[in-house]
Specification:
Blueprint lengths: L2 H9 E3 L16 E9 L5 E9 L10 E6 L2 E7 L2 E5 L2 E8 L2 E9 L5 E2 L1 E2 L4 H11 L1 H31 L2 H7 L10 H20 L13
Antiparallel strand pairs: 1-5, 2-3, 2-10, 3-4, 4-5, 6-7, 7-8, 8-9
Helix pairs in contact: 2-3, 3-5
C-alpha cells in the first residue's frame, strides 16, 4: 500500500448509518454534494454520495468528507480522503477555495469526476456550462488570465523588496521592478485572483502554480 493510501486509511472512520439530508438552497456557500452510481458485486446498481460541509473551517476541527451508500452514512474522513468503494476508490481533496478533487479511481481505467448535485454551487455551474458553452468557456479563460496576470505582476513587484534583503543582495544583486502599480489596482488584482480561483473550484479545476499562488 502506498504511503498516501496508508495515511488516508488512518483518517477513515465508520459511518453512523444516518440518512443523507437533501441539499438546501441556503447551503450553497457551505456544502458540496457529489453522486456516483456503480454496479455492485451482485450486479445491482449502488448509489454513492460524497457530502462535504465547508463550515468546519470556522471551528477547531478539520473539514471532513462523508460517504453515503444508498442514502445511508457509511464512512467519514478528514481531508484529503480516500474511500474504498466497489471496483476502486473515491478521492476527495479541498483547496482554500473549495473542492479541488472528487473523483472515482477504478482499479483499472481512468479516474472520472463524480457528478455534482444539481442544487449545489458546483451543479449550478455545470448546468450553466451545458446551457451556455461559449460563455462558460470564455469565463474559464478569463479566470486563468486573471490568475496569470495577478500572480505574475505581484511576483514582479515582490521581487524588488526581496532583492534588497542584505543576504540576497550580496548573492544576486538588486532588482528594480519595471512595474509599480497603485495600491487600489493591486487590491483589485488580488480580489480578481480570489474570485477566479473560486470560479475554478466550482469546476474542480486546480493548479498548484496558479490557484495556490493566487491566495
Amino acid at each position: 500500500m502506498a504511503w498516501k493510501q496508508w495515511a488516508a486509511s488512518k483518517r477513515l472512520k465508520p459511518g453512523d448509518g444516518r440518512e443523507l439530508q437533501r441539499f438546501r438552497w441556503w447551503q450553497l456557500p457551505l456544502r458540496s454534494l457529489f453522486w456516483l452510481r456503480l454496479p455492485g458485486a451482485d450486479g445491482e446498481a449502488r448509489l454513492y454520495a460524497v457530502d462535504v460541509r465547508h463550515w468546519a473551517r470556522w471551528d477547531t476541527s478539520r473539514i471532513r468528507a462523508h460517504l453515503f451508500l444508498d442514502g445511508r452514512h457509511v464512512a467519514e474522513s478528514k481531508l484529503p480522503a480516500v474511500f474504498p468503494v466497489d471496483g476502486g476508490v473515491i478521492e476527495v481533496a479541498m483547496s482554500d477555495y473549495g473542492v479541488k478533487r472528487c473523483h472515482y479511481r477504478p482499479q483499472d481505467g481512468q479516474p472520472r469526476q463524480l457528478t455534482p448535485d444539481p442544487a449545489s454551487a458546483e451543479g449550478r455551474r455545470a448546468r450553466f456550462g451545458v446551457r451556455h458553452p461559449g460563455l462558460s468557456r470564455a469565463i474559464g479563460i478569463g479566470s486563468v488570465l486573471l490568475l496569470v496576470i495577478g500572480v505574475g505582476l505581484n511576483l514582479v513587484q515582490l521581487a524588488e523588496p526581496l532583492s534588497r534583503i542584505p543576504p540576497v543582495m550580496q548573492r544576486v544583486g538588486t532588482f528594480e521592478s519595471p512595474v509599480h502599480l497603485p495600491i487600489w489596482l493591486n487590491v483589485a488584482l488580488g480580489l480578481g485572483a480570489v474570485l477566479s480561483s473560486m470560479e475554478r473550484s466550482l469546476r474542480l479545476r486546480y493548479s498548484p502554480l496558479l490557484d495556490a499562488a493566487g491566495r
